[in-house]
Amino acid sequence: MMASILKLDAAAARAAIPQLADILVDAVAHGASVNFMAGFSQAEAARFWQGQMEAIEAGGRELLVAETGSKIVGTVVVTFAPQPNGPHRAEIGKMLVHSSARRQGIGSALLQAAEAAVRASGRTLAHLDTQTGSAGEALYRAHGWIEYGVMPRHSFTPDGTLASATFFYKQVGP
Question: Is 1's pLDDT higher than 70?
Answer without folding.
Answer: no
